Amino acid sequence: MAVNQWFEVLNPSFNSMVGHIKYVLIDFDGTISVIRQGWEGVMIPLMIEMSCEGNRPTPEIEKEVREYVDYSTGILTIRQMEWLAEAVRRYGISKNPKDAYEYKRIYNQRMLLLVEERLRKLVNGELNPDDLMICGSRRFLEELCKKGVTMYLASGTDHEHVLREANALGITKYFRGGIYGALDYTEENSKEKIIERILSENNLHGRELLVVGDGPVEVRSAKARGSIALGVASDEVRRIGLNPRKRKRLMDAGADAIIPDFTKTEELMMLLGFHA
């Protein structure tokens, strides 16, 4: 389909793949929730600051950091901080290199300033839950529930924060399969492992699982196991419309199809093989 159409099919075999979906794994941040919108604007400066320790960053360092953050979107935060710890040692500029857990602590401290302000507005009634969600996403979750689909929610953000933020948005009830955030000392809640468990525990063929997300990690993991990958090239600021940068990275990761948001829920359900 043409790029200017709302639903863009990239895999010529897409129509033959859909129609058998029984389980859906959905990424949280940037796909459903925008509570953490702007996280790259926290992580990239942090990585550059820690790498250069007050010195002016070289164009090469800036480029490598930005490319890594773009590529790694969706993985566990601690893995990104492990990359940072290795990069700091490799650059050799910092006189006080830290371990990955300390870098993560600093990142979380800065990120939570944004998160807490948004949650405060939610509690005070200045914002409604849907104001912090990609447009149409709640309706999409409701329609999947009506079809009897078992849904799982996954995020590279720490488990306790995912639970808290999903609860604040009022969406935990949709995820009968479970909600999975990051656990630092194990890979069990990585998206790759969750996909493996869903397929093996339910004895599924790959096409019975749909993976929905805005990051390349979940798309690559889905395609590696023969599942259907729906990329969400969301504009997290406007909450509606296409983000061209996300679209490119989802295409590069091998997404079967791409949408900008969930505003055309009925059309999307039909395209995924769910009929009235």
Fold and architecture overview:
It is globular, with a radius of gyration of 19 Å. Helix 9 runs parallel beside helix 10. A seven-stranded mixed β-sheet has the order 1-7-6-5-2-3-4. It contains eleven helices and seven strands. The chain has helices spanning 14-17, 40-52, 59-72, 77-91, 100-123, 137-146, 159-169, 191-201, 216-224, 244-253, 265-271; strands at 8-9, 23-27, 150-158, 178-182, 209-213, 228-232, 257-259. 46% of the residues lie in helices and 12% in strands. It folds into two domains: 8-34 and 133-271, HAD superfamily/HAD-like (Rossmann fold, 3-Layer(aba) Sandwich), CATH 3.40.50; 40-123, no CATH class. It is of the alpha/beta class and 276 residues long.
Overall number of strands: 7
Q: What's the arrangement of strands in the largest beta sheet?
A: 1-7-6-5-2-3-4
Task: Name the CATH superfamily classification of the largest domain.
Answer: HAD superfamily/HAD-like
Number of helices: 11
CATH topology of the largest domain: Rossmann fold
Q: Which range best describes the helical content: under 10%, 10-25%, 25-40%, 40-55%, 55-70% or over 70%?
A: 40-55%
User: Which CATH class of the largest domain is shown?
Assistant: Alpha Beta
CA-atom Rg in angstroms: 19 Å
